[in-house]
Amino acid sequence: MLDFSFSEEQQAFREMLREFSLKELLPNYTKWDSEGEFPRHLWKRLGELGVNGLRVPEKYGGSGADCVTTGIAAEEVGRGDFNLTYAVMLNGLISDIINNHAADSLKQKWLPQIASGDKVVGIALTEPAAGTDAAGIRSTAVRKGDRYILNGEKSGISAATIGDMFIVFAKTDQQSGSRGVSAFIVPRDLPGMECKGYEDMGNVLIGRGSIYMSDVEVPEENLIGLENQGFSQVMNGFDLSRLLIGLQCAGAAFQSLDETIEHVKTRHSFGKPLAKYQGVSFPIVHHYTHLELIKWQAYRGLWLRDQGKKHSKEAASVKWLGPKYSQEAIHECLLLNGHYAYTKEMPLEQRLRDVIGLEIGDGTAQANKFVIAKELIGKEYKPY
Ligand SMILES: Cc1cc2nc3c(=O)[nH]c(=O)nc-3n(C[C@H](O)[C@H](O)[C@H](O)COP(=O)(O)OP(=O)(O)OC[C@H]3O[C@@H](n4cnc5c(N)ncnc54)[C@H](O)[C@@H]3O)c2cc1C
């Protein structure tokens, strides 16, 4: 049997979020960017609507929804405010990691606060000398009695300036490569933690930045999963975030196409609506087709994850092409709307800046092609 339909419940959730996104998020999307303010009240509002707790089990205050439903949230929030899709992606990724691998006491402490939107959480893997080559991280976590002492610098971290807690990857075994990495829950307010923001081109209010750890002490229970297994256990979560990112970007691009279709039906040149010219309608069709392909590959990947089936290759394909197709579509929409779209009066220039960030964040195209090549051709042909 092959069935591409969403359940009635999923459809109702999509409709509710579409309305919320277009009525309550979209009108202020550019305001937060221009004022450089993080709208924490909207993050909380997403919690009330059940968006933050989709991957949090009911007993910890979430809805325990499936991954496909989480994808719907990414797509629909993306229509109204691309930056707030980080609530879907970061919370989905981090809730899955905590729920699957963390100690019970940590689940009880963090999952309800993630679901409600009271706490903002981030994930800190990248370092100044290790991005694509993530196994090359140098931050260390040294065991001392019943605690770990963390030292090092994380860079490029989303929510560095607004986050209350980070999942931090650090080396617990200096001798082995990726096998010597462990993941820890590290609250931001611990002594020795310092976070500094960047002046980014997009995703401004998400406060990307660097985290400096100087003798930060965490209890041993903050280790997530087994020591030295951070990569093999915890990084499987990135298959979820990659699929969600494809839908976040596609949501912003679909909204741009919808707005552009309205524009070309009403704007005239040479006595006719722009929409009558194939030089205008074909680019719209071109990008719509790309976005539909990405959307369905993303939902297929999420469905595979829900079934407990392999989906790394699918996730990597969506992460590689989703942000790329979306920024191309938004760019074209900007051109089709003419010079006003080049101003900050319209959301298109910001969508373009915002979406481009996720061509890099969570792994570049090349990093994702490694994943696909490894599965398609064989891991013995990996370049590293
Ligand atoms: C918007 C945004 C959000 C982010 N959020 C987070 C976050 O929350 N947490 C986090 O840990 N990190 C985050 N990052 C960092 C991101 O994951 C890294 O920037 C990314 O993995 C690339 O690493 P790098 O910047 O060090 O580039 P490098 O690894 O130095 O790569 C530079 C270029 O070389 C290419 N390249 C590298 N190696 C190869 C190779 N072997 N073959 C071919 N090409 C190669 C890359 O594809 C890239 O184009 C974010 C980045 C951005 C832009």
Automatic annotation (TrEMBL):
Keywords: FAD, Flavoprotein, Oxidoreductase. It holds the Pfam family Acyl-CoA_dh_N. It comes from the Bacteria. The keyword Oxidoreductase applies. SUPFAM superfamilies: Acyl-CoA dehydrogenase C-terminal domain-like, Acyl-CoA dehydrogenase NM domain-like. GO terms for molecular function: acyl-CoA dehydrogenase activity; flavin adenine dinucleotide binding. Residues 123-216 form the Acyl-CoA oxidase/dehydrogenase middle domain. Its cofactor is FAD. Residues 7-118 form the Acyl-CoA dehydrogenase/oxidase N-terminal domain. It catalyses: a 2,3-saturated acyl-CoA + A = a 2,3-dehydroacyl-CoA + AH2. InterPro entries: Acyl-CoA_DH_CS (IPR006089), Acyl-CoA_Oxase/DH_mid-dom (IPR006091), Acyl-CoA_Oxase/DH_mid-dom_sf (IPR046373), AcylCo_DH-like_C (IPR036250), AcylCo_DH/oxidase_C (IPR009075), AcylCoA_DH/ox_N (IPR013786), AcylCoA_DH/ox_N_sf (IPR037069), AcylCoA_DH/oxidase_NM_dom_sf (IPR009100). The keyword Oxidoreductase applies. Transmembrane segments: none annotated. Residues 228-376 form the Acyl-CoA dehydrogenase/oxidase C-terminal domain. Belongs to the acyl-CoA dehydrogenase family. This is Butyryl-CoA dehydrogenase. It comes from Bacillus thermotolerans.
